[in-house]
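Structure tokens please, single chain.
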Amino acid sequence: MVKIEKIFFKFSLLLPENVISAFEKLMVQGGFAVSAREYAGYAFLLSLVMSLAAFQVSSMIIGAQYGLLVGLFAFGVLAALFYLLILTTADTRARKIEEVLPDALQMMSANIRAGMTMENAIWASSKPEFGPLEEEIRVVSGKAFGGKPVTDALSEMGTRVRSSRLARAVKLLNEGIQLGGETAPLLEEVARDLKISSMLSKEIASATTMYMIFIVFTAVIASPVMFAASVYYADMSDFISSQRSTQLPAEGGLGSAASASGGFTSLVGSGGNTADQIKPQEVQQFAVACIMLTTFFGALTISEIRYGKLTRGLKFIPLFMLPALGIFFGAYMMLRSLFGFLFT
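Here you go.
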């Protein structure tokens, strides 16, 4: 019986090597135990199956031409979600390491001042409260005790963690070790710089709070309400246009038809051809698409302002998009209930 892992591995062979390399790097940085090829093959197979299912269903509903677009869109979305899963996991793990890294460096400095060697100081600083950093410290210590230079072991740790702060700290530490300087003061200075950098990031986040509030208000509240008013206006215009078209034959005469054609059609369309007019359903679809795009990029913008990383804004997308759509439909229904007498 063929194992399911072998099937995933065979499907991963259809993917380019650079894609597999990117998956492998992110999975190492995220602390995944599964093979990169198995994960990539599983993602590719599931995305392919779901896209084919979406194509079949949409072809029966809206036709094969649009069904192909829906299938390709479903494949792209699912593949992106699998990639974003390991990307966000790697970023989350890096953030946890950055939070405890200054304390770990200070502990290493204290161990060196107590008379330990660099290898023993690193090993003694692996504490359970450091979380993912404990695992990395143990890996570095194992390689150092196995005969690999400490600088090389630390450099490899910098590649296993998706953190620019850790990479800079490792670079400074390695340069100090290679130049033969005192390691304990260097570790303390690096830890102090990391704490200052963290404090500056928090100050920047608090200083830009008003900008973030404005973005949230615009994307989640103001924009949906304005789009709801636009959709209601389109409904009202379509209703009035249909009422006028039914009243024109009863009024009789070419003069009334000409006056109606020159008067109201400027509001809802051009000329008297109703086929060229924009339907309220199309306006509503456009509004929903704009709200989704606005909230999507609004979440990424806030993440870039507050954290300096776009990927950390992915978790805000559903928190922005769903309330915004709810406000849009709620405001639209409120307008319909308040001014519904106009449609009678």
